[in-house]
Specification:
The structure is a single chain. With 279 residues, the chain is α/β, with parallel strands linked by helices. It is built from eight helices and twelve strands. Strands 3-4-5-2-1-6-10-8-11 form a nine-stranded mixed beta sheet, sandwiched between helices. Strands 7-12-9 form a three-stranded mixed beta sheet. It is globular. 39% of the residues are buried.
Length: 279
């Protein structure tokens, strides 16, 4: 692990300043083998419950960032704040510092819950989900870094997905990274709502055609870019100064920066199933 790169990122470029007087996290969480970061906005409690039952080999830390933009419609904001209350009750969570809570899943695995939907903690709309992912991944990087400093094996991959993704039981069973690998791209499949099947096929064909033509042209950027299906090496994440803070396309720009550092491994399995919505 490149300590200087990670230390510089955490001190100068991370979002950890949002949590003054943050205690050391690793002793509160136990040993961690895998970390999964998930943003939630205007979702139902069912989405949370599904992730609390997620199996994983070893010890899994999930980081839920329950967020809303400062332009959120009143109904969506109210539903998101209700989701936060549900999450805190579900995880029997306790406050660490303002806006950050620690609890446990139904599998008795640790959970960090981040409040970015309260009045004083809304996210700028222009930064949206990119900033939400960055906050969660910065906390994940800190946990991995603290674990390394204790002489433990650091977390190999920082995973990020979305609330509408269905992860398979072998989601974390990927081979250890080789020297030049900086990221993972999981295969994915959309599950369209009734009546949207044809529209979804056209949408997926557009993505597949785009990637296929880049590959045909010999481009090093011939890959899918979806925030539901990414994982990044901790040191690579720090080297590119984290997740771009954009309301859309943050996954695309992160992968483009990572591709300049090393190899992105495109997996053939396991497949992530993503709910396809009219939006």
């Amino acid at each position: 692990m490149k300590l200087r790169t990670i230390e510089k990122y955490l001190s100068q470029h991370s979002e950890l300043k949002r949590f003054p007087d943050l205690p050391r996290l690793r002793p509160l969480l136990g040993a961690v083998d895998h970390i999964l970061c998930i943003p939630f906005y205007d979702e139902t409690p069912d989405a949370l419950a599904r992730f609390t039952e997620l199996p994983a080999p070893g010890h899994l830390l999930q980081i839920w960032i329950i967020n809303a933009p400062d332009t959120a419609e009143a109904g969506a904001l109210a539903r998101t704040r209700e989701l936060l209350r549900f999450a805190l009750d579900l995880a029997v969570a306790e406050a660490l510092v303002d806006g950050l809570y620690v609890g446990a899943s139904q599998q008795q695995q640790p959970l960090l819950i981040v409040d970015q939907c309260s009045l004083s903690r809304l996210l700028p709309a222009r930064q949206g989900v990119g900033l939400a992912r960055k906050i969660a991944l910065d906390l994940a990087l800190l946990v991995s870094y603290e674990q390394y400093l204790e002489g433990r094996v650091p977390v190999e991959w920082l995973h990020t997905t979305d609330a509408d993704a269905q992860l398979s039981p072998d989601y974390f069973a990927v081979a250890a990274p080789v020297k030049d690998e900086v990221g993972l791209i999981y295969p994915m499949q959309h599950l369209p709502e009734p009546g949207l099947e044809q529209a979804q096929r056209l949408y997926d064909f557009r993505f597949a055609y785009y990637v296929a033509m880049l590959k045909w042209a010999g481009s090093p950027y011939a890959f899918w870019a979806l925030g539901s299906s990414l994982a990044v090496r901790p040191e690579a994440y720090a080297a590119v100064r984290g997740m771009p803070t954009r309301a859309a396309g943050e996954d695309f720009y992160l992968l483009n920066k990572l591709a300049k550092l090393g190899r992105l491994r495109q997996l053939s399995a396991p497949v992530i199933e993503v709910a396809a919505r009219s939006s």
